[in-house]
Design brief:
It is built from ten helices and 14 strands. With 389 residues, it is an alpha+beta fold. 22% of the residues are buried. It is found in: Cytoplasm.
Length: 389
């Protein structure tokens, strides 16, 4: 009968599961060439990893060499947190992706990578559950919804982080931690406060106290952008550490490095230092005052101030020193100045050259000699000859 291949993949909906922690899985009905139909469950993170590997296997068809030759469908990358609304909104995107996938050339749609990913796994037949936790909630995709795809708007499944030190909460909205606690991150905020859950407890926790389980590096940390993004200070802050900056409300600064612990490296004129991101607002955006919950909450602690922090990883977190940021920032400012000076000098040279050419006296044509009387009498008309007689 030949090698198995997939005839059709239909997205049925999704399940909300509560074990080992709350997360969402999509339900696919996979129809095979032997006319069998199997039900499989996949997290969106799994689907996206499958998609990335598929693109690496077929670089031409994925558009890596020439974007115009891409035939492998697009799939938006996962973001922070996979809530129920984002899981629901993503169904249209996944339905279109699966339809396009099985209609690709056979070398792609019938390759082992695709076939193996959608094969039934043991946990598809018998999902791991806990009798103490409520059963999964099933949400079926309406028939008409399959015709209305919507773009991915939400982030991915709950991620588990480990506390690297004890943390005592300072308000009722926060959650205390002990070193080694495993928490599920429900929401990651740029201000450095993350909303987490631990068993039946929920609350805000400083991101500086958490580390991912798979490695010491935070994949979300960007490289510095020494060109800088313009922000407006929404709340004054007085520096406590030497590498922090003191700013007043209304100051305009440039953000050059956004860090997950809520302390961003910023530049004010030629001074570079750390500042709480919760007190900043991007320039040009809507003029929204600092939220009351942020106004009442102090800036989160920085990683460098945490004592007795014990990482489970042998390596240290990937970090860029303040000295490096300051040095590179100054180099960028100087290079920008040099560029502006060169442009100004070139403009001055062109202006002076044009001005010199405009002021330069134009060459006057030579005045021809007056013809003699004999020449006029011999060559000119009767009318002209009469005038000199």
């Amino acid at each position: 009968m030949g090698d198995p291949f997939i005839r059709h993949i239909e997205l049925l909906g999704y399940e909300k599961r509560f074990y080992p922690s709350q997360h969402y899985v999509y339900m696919f009905l996979v129809k095979w060439n032997d006319l069998s139909e199997k039900l499989v469950y996949r997290r969106f993170t799994e689907i996206y990893e499958f998609h990335k590997a598929l693109k690496e296997m077929f670089p031409i068809e994925s558009g890596d060499i020439n974007a115009e030759k891409r035939i492998i469908p697009h799939l938006p990358a996962p973001k922070w947190f996979d809530g129920q609304r984002s899981t629901q909104n993503r169904q249209g995107t996944l339905a279109e992706y699966c339809y396009a996938l099985v209609n690709l050339p056979h070398k792609i749609s019938r390759c082992l990578h695709v076939v193996n990913f959608f094969k039934v796994r043991p946990d598809d037949m018998n999902p791991v559950t806990d009798s103490q936790i409520k059963k999964p909630e099933v949400f079926l995709l309406p028939k008409d919804a399959k015709k209305n795809p919507s773009d991915i708007t939400g982030p991915i499944v709950l991620q588990t982080y480990r506390a690297i030190a004890d943390y005592e909460k300072s308000s009722t909205s926060e959650m205390a931690l002990q070193a080694g606690d495993m928490v599920d991150v429900v929401e990651k905020s740029e201000n450095g406060w993350w909303f987490c859950q631990l068993k039946n407890k929920r609350g805000w926790v400083p991101a500086a106290y958490l580390e991912p389980l798979d490695g010491p590096d935070e994949s979300e940390e960007q490289e510095p952008n020494y060109a800088g993004e313009e922000y407006i200070v929404q709340k004054s802050y007085t520096a406590v550490e030497e590498d922090e900056l003191t700013l007043k409300e209304g100051d305009t600064i440039e953000v050059i490095h956004k860090l997950l612990d809520g302390w961003w490296v910023i530049r004010k004129d030629e001074a570079t230092g750390y500042y709480p991101s919760m007190y900043l607002q991007k320039a040009g955006g809507a003029n929204i005052s600092v939220k009351s919950e942020l106004r009442n909450r102090s800036a989160p602690p920085r990683r460098s101030t945490i004592r007795n922090a014990k990482s489970i990883h042998k390596q240290r977190r990937k970090s860029i020193s303040q000295a490096t940021c300051r040095r590179n920032s100054r180099q960028y400012i100087q290079s920008r100045r040099n560029t502006l000076e060169n442009l100004q000098n070139k403009a001055n040279v062109i202006f002076e050259k044009n001005e010199h050419e405009e002021n330069k006296a134009k060459a006057q044509p030579a005045v021809p000699p007056r013809p003699s009387k004999d020449l006029i009498l011999n060559r000119c008309t009767e009318s002209t000859r009469r005038k000199i007689l």
